[in-house]
Structure formats: structure tokens, C-alpha cells
Amino acid sequence: MTERRTPLLEAHAELGAKLTEFAGWDMPLQFSGIVSEHNSVRSSVGVFDVSHLGKLRLEGASAGKALDRAVTADIGALEVGRATYALVLYDDGGCVDDLFVYRLGSHEWLVVPNAANVQEVARALVEAGASPVDEWSRWAILAVQGPGSFETFDRAFPAGGAGELELHSWKGLEVCGDTGFVARTGYTGERGFELYAPSAVAPQAYGALLDAGCAPVGLGARDTLRLEMGYALYGHEISPDINPLEAGLGWAIDWESSFRGREALDGVRESGPARRLFGFLCKERGVPRAGYAVVDEDRTLGEVTSGNYSPTLGTGIALALGPAESTPEAGRAAAVEARGRRIDGVIVKPPFVGKGERTKK
């Protein structure tokens, strides 16, 4: 038994989901199959249960200043009704986590980190002077993603007006007789929303989205979707040993803020990152996996951080990290060493598919 349960676990079981343990949660890996679910999101609309994400509420006049010290974004400039992507760093510039911050009120914020890093993020917030409240059990989070997301969401919640939202904004919403909110954020590169539904009414909200036309989608397709967009995943493209500039996340840094790890990151910016991420596209059958070497004829170019089969492209793709001074140029022939054989391919610049909406990474 795992420690935490999504309020939608019974609904997933009724839909025939294949469950997997993830950061102490039983979560759906897939329903009809990863490829078909992936294609549903790219071509139409799907709904993910991402209730395992952390939810830390901060309140009080000093909470905003604490957030400014703890994360890499300019929290002071964040208006009520807006959200921002940010990072939490260690003193040496390595990544504690990446997360979203929602400004709910003048002195109220919701911080949404990855499930496995909630305690470490909470510790960083406390060290910065905040008093985060764990609201993990209060909310279910339903990500509605795909080109048909606007029309589908409006069918499920016709009075919500979600289609009026700008990217990285949110608004309050009546959800099945209770009060929640919906945000224009996501992790797929497609148009869409993340619905924060009170846990008590989450099954009804999930049912309404399915009835409106959403395909149920598991975490397996969520990973292939984010990889096609070149989005970073904690533990792969970012980690305590990989700093944001190596991961290509300099755009998530507010260089006017005095966040933890700023001094170390200033040094990296001045000297240049030691490593850089690049993309690899397979030109023959095979799937690159994390840890595989990317090579040319006579040397190693880097190591795969994330690799998988791309349903959109019909071939294997990967993100890899290698020395900055020898980062291979896009279009260069290369190969991945996979269990005794080489998979030929080419170096590419992510994203692997269309740019989409930059709602996450």
C-alpha cells in the first residue's frame, strides 16, 4: 500500500487503468495504451490525473518575500490571477526542484512542486522564512490538454469562461457545487488547462470531462508528450548535479532577484556552463534510454538523460547532456550505444515537434 491516494483511484480502476507506484502514490500509467493516449492529446483532447503533484499554500505579508528568496522567479512582480514557472536551487546552483507558483491573493500563494520533492521544497521555503501549509489532500488536479481542450472544457463547465484565460493565468471556478480554480498551465505543449478541483467533488469533475469528450490519459503518455517538446524532467534533465544553465533553463531565472544559489549561478553564467543539453533523433529502429552514450565515429558526445519512442514522429528520440565545448551542432550524424549495438541518428535542437504552448518548461 502507498501512503497517499488520488481521489480518482476508484474511477481509474473502473476505466481499466494499469496502475504504477509513483512517489508514494498509486497512479495510472496507461488506459488504452500509451501511443493511443498520446495521439489523443496531440490530435484531440485528453485528461490526466496529476493529483500527486505537491500543493503548498503560503499566506501572510512576509510570504512573498520568502518566496523571492526561495525561487528563481520575480514573485514580487507576479500579479493576483497569474502563475509562473520557477526553480528552487541549492547553494551550489544545483536544482532542488522545478515548480509552479500561483498568486491566489494579495498575501496568498500556492506552490506546486513535483511529488517526490515536496518535503525538500517545503524545507527551502521554511529556511527562506515562510510557513508552508501542506494541502496535498485538499485538491485533485486534472490536466485537460490538446487542440480540442477549449471546446471540451466549456462543454464540461459551460459557465466557467476558461477560454478567456491567458497563458499562465488562472480564475476561480464552480466545480460540481464546490469552489475550485482553473489555470492555463500544462506539460504537453498543447493548448489546455489544469483544473484544481476540491477532492470531495473530483470524481464528478473527472466524469464531466470524460462525458464531454476527454480521453483518459496516464503518466506514460504524459512523459512522451513532454519529451517531444524537450521539456525538462526532474531527476533527468535537472537534478542536484545539473544546474539550470546546463539544462537550458536560463529563461526561468530572474537575474534581478536574490534567490538561494544566485552567487553560484552567477559564476556559471560568467564562465559558461560546463555541459549543455541537446536532442537526438533516431534514423533507424530502436529506442534510446537514459544512461546510453551518444557517440560519433571516434568519441562520446554526451549521455542520454531521457529517451523514448515518439508516437508523433514514429521513431526514438532523446535528450542528452554533454560537454559544452563540444556540443554537437544540429544536423550532425551520430549514434546511441544501446546494449551492444548502435542506433544511427542525427543531432537535433528540441523541441522535436511543433513549438506549441510553453506552459511548463
Describe this structure in words.
With 361 residues, the protein is α+β, with helices and mostly antiparallel strands. The protein folds into 3 domains: 4-54 and 136-228, 2-Layer Sandwich (Gyrase A, domain 2), CATH 3.30.1360; 56-134, Aminomethyltransferase beta-barrel domains (Alpha-Beta Plaits), CATH 3.30.70.1400; 274-361, Elongation Factor Tu (Ef-tu), domain 3 (Beta Barrel), CATH 2.40.30.110. Helices cover 20% and strands 34% of the residues. It has 8 helices and 20 strands. The strands form 4 sheets. The protein has a 6-stranded mixed β-sheet with strand order 11-12-13-10-4-14, sandwiched between helices. Strands 15-18-17-16-19-20 form a 6-stranded antiparallel β-barrel. Strand 16 (293-295) and strand 17 (300-310) form a beta hairpin. Helix 5 crosses helix 6 (202-212). The radius of gyration is 20 Å and the shape is globular. It starts with a strand and ends in a 13-residue tail after the last strand.
Largest sheet: 6 strands, mixed
Strand order of the largest sheet: 11-12-13-10-4-14
Helix content: 10-25%
CATH class of the largest domain: Alpha Beta
Oligomer: single chain
Number of domains: 3
The string of secondary-structure elements, in order, is EHEEHEEHEEEHEEHEEEHEHHEEEEEE
- Count of strand segments: 20
CATH fold field value of the largest domain:
Gyrase A, domain 2
Name given to the CATH architecture of the largest domain:
2-Layer Sandwich
Gross morphology is: globular
Q: How many whole angstroms does the radius of gyration measure?
A: 20 Å
Q: In percent, how much strand structure appears in the residues?
A: 25-35%
Q: Quick one: CATH superfamily of the largest domain? A: Probable tRNA modification gtpase trme, domain 1
Mean pLDDT over the residues: 95
Amino-to-carboxy terminus distance: 32 Å
Number of helices: 8
